[in-house]
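We close this part of the discussion by returning to an individual protein. In the encoding step, the backbone of a single protein was reduced to a row of integers, each denoting a local shape. The sequence in question and its structure tokens are set out directly beneath this paragraph.
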Amino acid sequence: MKNIKSIAGVALLAMMATSSHAAKSVTVGELQGFTGPLESMIGAMSGGANLAVTEANASGSFLQGTINVVQGDSVCIDAAVAIAQAEKMVNEDNVMAIMGPNCSGNTIAVIEGVIVPNGIVSISPSATSPAIDALDDGGFFFRTAAPDTKQGPMLAKVAMARGQTDMAVTHSNSDYGKALADAFVAAYEEMGGTVTVFSAHEDDKADYSADVAALSAGGSATLAVLGYADTGGRGIIAASEDTGAFTDYIFGDGMISEVTAGAVADGSWGAKPSPSAELQAAWEVVATAGGVDGKGVYSGESYDAMALIILAAQAAGSTDRAAIQAEVMNVANAPGNKCHAGKLGECLKMISGGLPVDYVGATGVELDAVGTPNGSYAEQEVIAGAFTTVEVHN
């Protein structure tokens, strides 16, 4: 009888331990522009981020228990709103880290106002301003999207290769738009291109006809639109199409949307961050299985941003914010066992087993000393009313 009681007691303790582990949970913040100028892109981005969480939870291998996600709407271009949402996540929701924000201006504000003062990791899937790398972020900010100093020259190179030797250029009057436009114009002119008119446009205006008239006064048939698909960029295109001011367009990543493709004729083109064709195809398989649009702009980068948070917390063996920060670069970069999208359960097991991982993910993650990836871009042309990748440029 003594032995039976002893065995029963051990079994009870085991059950209690298992129940205790299962009952544990942690919270991660998802700070994205659910409304605002990137609204049409956020569905795929949020889907990618939450697919990483679903995958980790389903594996049962995350040491801290179940991962819960609390969402906050940064509205993308209102710094006060973004800061308030981030502060709520940190102080009320007690998140262990934040996936986001999206737009560069908001991201800079959140880094300075919330991330640094509170010492909490933030990984953005889409903030691309080069100015971010110069910030004193205390080592707590990372991103899975490359800066516009890389996208701008790529756009210029492709434009010249396509024979587009002169054009008007307009950009959103924002940190993102100005940085991308400056990088593009500098490279384009250095390659021999001519910018006939270069001007900023304000977002959320009711009428863009005057903007388009000024842009077309330079005489070029081509317009580069480096803005946001759901606000000023869309308004610029609508006014141009109404008047026939331009016959073809070039778009930055903020314009790669069904909204844009459906508003212009075939032949216009743009760029979006993209890994190699092999990685992109693999990501689309994983995304489709998870009910996510794997072709959506920054969907893979969003999956990677959330996955890095999860893996760093696993490596830290803790939800301590500083401990997570100390592990991000370790799980993101070589050396280690390659860790691909769709395999987070296996990666979590490797980490808990004491094995190092090198997170490749959906987009081929490898971060430099300031937590920024090198990045590559897909040249996308509007074909049959949809953006279609025609080539990937490193």
Q: What stands out?
A: The longest strand covers residues 25-32.
